[in-house]
Amino acid sequence: MRAHQIMTRSVITVTPGTPVAEAARIMLRNHIGGLPVVDASGTLVGMVTDGDFLRRAELGTERKRGRWLDLLVGRGRIGADFVHSHGRTVGDIMSQPAVAVSADAGLAEIVETMEKHSIKRLPVVSGERLTGIVTHTDFVQTLADLATAVPGPTPDDDGLRSAILDALDQAACKHCRFNVVVRNGIAHLTGAVRHESERATAIVAAKSVPGVRDVRDHMWVYPPPEDEFGGGDIVSLQDQPSTDDDQPL
């Protein structure tokens, strides 16, 4: 899937000249945590999020440092922090350039970009123009939609599964070691069998059930326990017939 298939197309935006207080009110009214910032032509120029409102002079939360720490961080950083906490417009506090992806970006690329930049919302652009936005919520919704789209077993599938298990019993297959799943008339045999012949028998048994459209083999063969002891059955000494050598002297 691509960005354009899951993105929100109707995007609420602000401009660099939007007052900070108005941007905050827009977020609150629409229950969103971030706003793409666009210029008059619709070109994406930045991003403002609720995190940009944490260090604000109005709240008394602006960053305060001691004199020696100010010397360490440098004048540039001090000035940037001051603008961010005292700026009156979105253009003063926004992150720029905005991190964005193209409409053709795959989901893996989107996730990697979000994780790399520790962001929850990602503008989608065509060239430089904003065309949509992808958020964590879009991924949750997509996952829910995909899970809903996966067909569950129908009553007919359940009936076929029971019939296949009966057929395996009749064929003397130890079906307790593997599972049978039926979806849309197709039987999937998964798990372990002890011999190739048991695998072949299980497949024939499943195919013999009327209504089964196909059988998919996901089984594997593992060595029977007796092979670990050099072959043959393990018999208790108490079960052996006695001989003259076994009689007490």
From TrEMBL:
InterPro entries: BON_dom, CBS_dom, CBS_dom_sf, Diverse_CBS-Domain, UCP036990_CBS_BON. Residues 7-63, 94-150 form the CBS domain. Coiled coil: none annotated. It holds the Pfam family BON. Residues 156-223 form the BON domain. It comes from the Bacteria. The keyword Transferase does not apply. Residues 226-249 are annotated as: Disordered. Keywords: CBS domain. SUPFAM superfamilies: CBS-domain pair. This is CBS domain-containing protein. It comes from Bradyrhizobium ontarionense.
